[in-house]
Specification:
- The chain is an alpha/beta fold.
- The chain contains 6 helices and 10 strands; from the N terminus they run ααββαβββαβββαβαβ.
- The protein is globular and about 40 Å long.
Length: about 170
């Protein structure tokens, strides 16, 4: 129960602090929550927690700032920018910037069923990422979680995170 209150409080305060406009500071708050409240297989639970950003996105600098002061459940963050999937090696989270959304099926094919949380900036009928950022009815940033995709990638989201998500 403490985790739920803490997570909701953290996101609420972040929303107030960052305002109503879409900005990547709020995206980063959610990315931090994903790192904390998604469970990876034991073999992927050691060492740095790696986030790869595919393409150009303002989230990159925000993630690097977060990585300087936060840890993912006691593990340091490693933030990497990649320009194409040929540069991709391995990560826990792969953030797909909007200019790469149309190539989602190619990206997903390269990742296969590896335990990687695929996060897209835009939800479309063509992409069925594990997590998609969306706007809520009130115009605030929200996220949807595709449970089928999480299972495919051998990932589990904690109930604290699922309560905040739009579940598909």
């Amino acid at each position: 129960m403490k985790k739920i209150v803490g997570l909701v409080g953290f996101i609420f305060l972040a929303t107030i602090g960052f305002g109503q406009t879409q900005n990547f500071q709020m995206h980063t708050v959610y990315m931090y929550a994903f790192a904390k409240f998604v469970k990876w297989p034991p073999e992927d639970s050691q060492g740095d927690f790696e986030i790869a950003v595919l393409g150009d996105s303002p989230i990159l600098s925000e993630l690097k700032t977060m990585a300087e002061v936060k840890k993912a459940v006691g593990r340091p963050f490693k933030i990497t920018k990649i320009n194409s999937m040929t540069d991709y090696k391995k990560s826990h989270i792969l953030y797909i910037s909007p200019n790469w959304t149309e190539k989602y099926s190619e990206i997903a094919a390269k990742i296969g069923e590896a335990p990687v949380l695929l996060v897209t900036e835009q939800a479309t009928s063509a992409n069925k990422g594990c997590v998609n950022f969306v706007s809520s009815k009130e115009g605030k940033l929200a996220f949807e979680i595709n449970q089928e995709q999480l299972s495919k990638h051998k990932l589990r989201a904690a109930s604290e995170l699922m309560r905040l998500a739009i579940v598909n």
